[in-house]
Amino acid sequence: MAPEFPYPTQGQDINYGIRWLKVHAADLNGDPGIIGGIGYPSGGHTLPLAAMRLSDPRYTAVPLEGSSPADANLAWIISCWPVIDLLLKYTIAKEAGKPELLEKHHGFFRGDEAMHESKPARR
Q1: Domain range list for the chain
Q2: What CA–CA distance (Å, rounded) separates 73 from 25?
Q3: Per residue in 4-28, is it b (16+ CB within 10 Å) or e — as a string?
Q4: Which of 26, 52, 74, 94 has the smallest number of Cβ neighbours within 10 A?
Q5: What pLDDT, in 10s, does the model give residues 75-119?
Q6: In whole angstroms, what is the distance from residue 8 CA to residue 24 CA?
Q7: Closest Cα partner for 32 from 72, 80, 89, 77?
Q8: What interhelical angle do 41-52 and 9-23 show, nearest 10?
Q9: How far is CA 116 from CA 2, 21, 23, 82, in A?
Q10: Helix or strand or coil: residue 118?
């Protein structure tokens, strides 16, 4: 959690976790070709983001022996209640006078550019 683990740490965790699961799928009687993911609010934002940025060095920063960045590709994703535009959410919170939400955004993103960059649509 932020501020100890700011953006893009969550995307790195997702990317690493997918690669780990695919490398170990056979050990778990699974098929790496059908692995997908479901994300709720924050996960609903970062799961599609990580899925769209398979070779982005910010997301592939944690190496895993026996895998490559492309191994983080998912067969499917379900994004539930995502906040797709966090800069817009931040702007609304600022206008509404919500300092606790602003503090959380600052702790996680450490700046407007990171919030803007983290939009899946920006790709």
Answers
A1: 9-122
A2: 14
A3: eebbbbbbbebbbebbbbbeeeeee
A4: 26
A5: 999 999 988 788 888 899 999 999 998 888 888 988 878 888 887
A6: 24
A7: 72
A8: 70
A9: 18, 30, 32, 15
A10: coil
Q: How many CB atoms lie within 10 A of CB 86?
A: 22
CA distances (Å), origin 115, targets 18, 77, 106, 121: 24, 22, 9, 12
Supply 123's token pair: 């790709």
Structure tokens belonging to residue 61: 């920063």
Q: Angle at CA 40, nearest 5°, toward 102 and 15? A: 90
> What are 119's two structure tokens?
């939009």
